[in-house]
Each structure stands twice: as structure tokens, then as C-alpha cells.
Amino acid sequence: MSVNVHGLYAIIDADRLAPALMPATALELSGAGATIIQLRAKSLGSGEFLKAARDLRAALKDAAFIVNDRVDIAMMSRADGVHLGQNDIPLIEAKRLLGNGKIIGVSTHNLKEALQAASEGADYIAFGPVFKTRSKRDAQEMKGIACLKEVCDAVQLPVVAIGGITGENARQVIVAGARAVAMISELIDADDMKAKAASIVGMFGNQRS
Fold first, then answer.
1. pLDDT averaged over every residue in the chain
2. What is the pTM of this model?
3. Active site residue ranges
């Protein structure tokens, strides 16, 4: 499907935020201009994950809602789509299960993975970690701006830059060709989360995918 991936891709992580606080946080981020909100909940049991996903689905009206990793949770919560890692269910199987009209993104760490995701029908890819990140304990080594640009130039899909993106380096990834930036810590740890989100959104101007 054609997906409007641009600007701020906000990730709400259960390791950083209690489920009870998630709907209000998602609404604040959406109100600041985030176009996609992803729920990442590796530390929650399936029942808690599903409840959190349903609560976010009910709260969000103006941003696409994506579930990380879990196709089953995405289906049961009526999310707009799912984001898959390299070790998750294969993209082709996710497409078969979710059916038409759902967004599927894929995490990639090199050009080969990016090209494979594109050839299999991903709607967007995430590439990184571009910079050193403190939000993911098992993150790979940073890839850098040059690798990000190589991927952006090689694929026709929207590329979401992820990993260590801050207000200070976001312009670098935009210039390299990223259509969106994914953030966790930079938003959650901000003194004024809504202002931080709005400042990132403003860097993209009127860009659309």
C-alpha cells in the first residue's frame, strides 16, 4: 500500500514508559505532528502487550499506529500495521496474515537487507543504528551517515533513520535522504516532550512520501 511515512516516527517503549502513561503520551506526540506511533513492548507479557496496543489504538486518531514485532497483537488490536525485525516472522507471511491495507515496515542494517525488504514488498524500511544508541541494549554497531545515504539512494521506499537520532544530528539524516526519523529516548527524556517533537517535525517542512 502507499504509506505516508515522513517526519517524526515516535516509538513508545514499555521499557521506558508505564502502560498507563502511553495513551496520553501518544496523543501528545501526535498532537505535535508525529505521523507514526509505534508500540514497542518486549518486556510485557502478551496480555499486557495486547491491552496496551488496544488502548493506544483507541486513543490515536491522527497518526498511524504500528505494533513492533507481533503480527498477532497488530491483528487483535486493529493496528494500522506492524514493524518487523530481521528475526521476526517473514515479511511475506506477515502480508498474508494481515491482508491488504496494512502497513509493514522492516528493520534493516545493511544494503542487502534493505534491498531484500524492498523486493518482498515492505512499505518502508528502518535503517540503523545510524549513531550510537542508548535505547536498545542489543543494538548493532553504528552504521553512520554514509551507509544511510547509500541505502536511501538505492531503494525507492521511504527510509526511516533510527538509532541515536537527536535534535542536533537529525538534519544530517534528512540531508542523507531519510524520509523520517525514529526516536525514543530523545523524546521521553526531553524536559518538554511536545516541544522537542514539534521541533523535529519542523525540520521536515512540507516533505511527504
1. 93
2. 0.93
3. 40, 107, 136
